[in-house]
Design brief:
- Helix content is about 30%, strand content about 20%.
- The chain is built from 6 helices and 9 strands; from the N terminus they run H-E-E-H-E-H-H-E-E-H-E-H-E-E-E.
- Strand 1 (about 20) and strand 2 (about 30) form a beta hairpin.
- The radius of gyration is 15 Å and the shape is globular.
């Protein structure tokens, strides 16, 4: 089941499509983080201002240096010891679609613990875009049944995993991390 869903989602993403999928936090809309056209599809679907960047997911922290110019050593400890899913916003984004990079050159990155996300990212050999499955400005859905028809009908594929789960998951903690190791919380 998981393997089949990963294969189906991978095919859609390879073709430049966007998917609706479960994560270790809330349901997300995603695509290949290096495909600018696919990234723009997500902005249009969410009716989101392109100045508001979206995050990327990785399957392991040893890939951080592929997408950030200077990863502070503390980043690895923060990820390893975080009690909740943690998104790190770091300057010096590289090797991803320019449409994902903030005006200040930063990118938000989370290492996902969800088996679907991990397997899909391994198969893609690239980061996966992740943004909440809602129209910009509306509340983030806590589980699949709260996702609006506009989103479900607007993606190219809806992953058939965890759709009946009523476990309430919260968005990740967001922390800005400078190359010096200085950090500040953006969302706890």
């Amino acid at each position: 089941m998981l393997k089949d869903e990963v294969a189906k989602a991978f095919k859609i993403i390879q073709e430049g499509g966007i998917i609706l999928y479960p994560t270790d936090t809330i349901w997300g809309i995603g695509c290949d983080a290096t495909n600018t056209e696919a990234v723009k599809k997500i902005y249009r679907l969410k009716q989101r201002d392109e100045a508001k960047s979206m995050i990327i997911l990785l399957d392991t922290d040893n890939k951080l240096q592929s997408y950030v110019q200077e990863v502070p050593e503390i980043a690895y400890d923060l990820i390893q010891y975080a009690e909740n899913p943690l998104t790190l916003v770091m300057p010096g984004a590289k090797n991803i679609s320019p449409a994902l990079i903030s005006g200040d050159g930063s990118i938000g990155i989370r290492v996902s613990a969800h088996p679907f996300c991990q397997q899909l990212i391994q198969r893609m050999r690239r980061p996966l875009v992740s943004t909440s499955a809602n129209i910009s400005g509306k509340p983030s859905p806590q589980y699949f049944s709260q996702i609006g028809a506009e989103i479900i009908n607007g993606v190219d594929y809806v992953v058939d995993i965890d759709q009946h789960s009523m476990e309430i998951r919260n968005p990740s903690t967001i922390m800005r991390l400078e190359p010096s190791g200085r950090f500040e919380f953006i969302r706890r």
